[in-house]
């Protein structure tokens, strides 16, 4: 694209954004903490889902210092429902690093931002742009779709070469001044107009610059990994208005789940069956009513049923608990202690 067309592209995009850009809560701040929270939450999560969590998070943890003081239990509890809990742990670790190593001051350079846990290239560029108005490109799902169609790029965008080319294209177009507004406009163009299916080419403000012949076929991705099916068996053990839970140590590290069984009990029907996705897995969760006398006190704990809402439990297990604890008490098998 010629320099003349680059400038015209930016003007058309910004004119459109001034009229149609989204009013999102993190757009009204330059606070790097608030912007970092939004970027962590928006990873693999839709905007409409994030907004209430974002507002509640800033109410509970308004700055790096407040988050750094919080316990992991409180952090994970506030995050539950968003999934991918490593994001919460990384955000928590970043807050503590900012407070303990940088006296509460967040850096503005991409290189320094990337040194914090869980912060990759896109998140570092996004915070540098939206908090500090740095002239840096951003490539995420929306902008990647715009770039592949704009340049008719037909190589897989999740390949090394594809990622490199996307960042090169993004760097070519980002302006030296007011990159914050330009990058916000580019994201909104992908979210509102250059959508994955049935793109709204008729109202696209930059359609005269677009080279895509069949935009709906772009972007190209490598074949996804096959979905793996897993079966997990857990126990329900209730005693005197308490339930036995176990601290997860793998997928949901730090959260509380129903105690894991090594295998399904012989000649016993499950009292609950749920299916949920996790990355490229499709997991069947079976729950069996159990009597258990030997308890692993390192990982397991009796929890009062009326306090379950106050502890972090992954959505799949919380759904199981709500089903089993509401109107299904005849299925319980209790233990005496």
Describe this entry's structure for a reader:
- It is a single chain.
- The chain is an alpha+beta fold and 337 residues long.
- It has two domains: 3-217, Hypothetical protein, domain 2 (Endonuclease III, domain 1), CATH 1.10.340.30; 228-331, Nucleoside Triphosphate Pyrophosphohydrolase (Alpha-Beta Complex).
- Helix content is 41%, strand content 12%.
- The chain contains twelve helices and eight strands.
- It has helices at 3-20, 32-42, 47-60, 64-69, 72-79, 86-102, 110-113, 121-132, 141-150, 160-173, 179-192, 315-325; strands spanning 228-236, 238-239, 242-247, 256-257, 260-261, 272-278, 281-289, 300-304.
- A four-stranded mixed beta sheet has the order 5-1-7-6, with helices on one face. Strands 2, 3, 4 and 8 form a four-stranded antiparallel beta sheet that branches.
- Strand 3 (242-247) and strand 4 (256-257) form a beta hairpin.
- Mean pLDDT is 93; it is low at 330-337.
Summarize the SSE layout with pairings.
Layout: H1 3-20, H2 32-42, H3 47-60, H4 64-69, H5 72-79, H6 86-102, H7 110-113, H8 121-132, H9 141-150, H10 160-173, H11 179-192, E1 228-236, E2 238-239, E3 242-247, E4 256-257, E5 260-261, E6 272-278, E7 281-289, E8 300-304, H12 315-325
Parallel strand pairs: 1-7
Antiparallel strand pairs: 1-5, 2-3, 3-4, 3-8, 6-7
Shape type: globular
Whole-number mean pLDDT: 93
Major beta sheet, specifics? 4 strands, mixed
Strand order of the largest sheet: 5-1-7-6
As a percent range, the share of helical residues equals 40-55%
| Total of helices | 12
Portion in strands: 5-15%
Radius of gyration in whole Å, from Cα? 24 Å
State the CATH architecture of the largest domain: Orthogonal Bundle
Count of extended strands: 8
CATH superfamily of the largest domain: Hypothetical protein, domain 2
| First-last Cα distance | 75 Å
Spans where pLDDT lies below 50 across 5 or more residues? 330-337
What string, H for helix and E for strand, traces the elements in order?
HHHHHHHHHHHEEEEEEEEH
CATH topology of the largest domain: Endonuclease III, domain 1
CATH class descriptor of the largest domain: Mainly Alpha
Class by alpha and beta content = alpha+beta
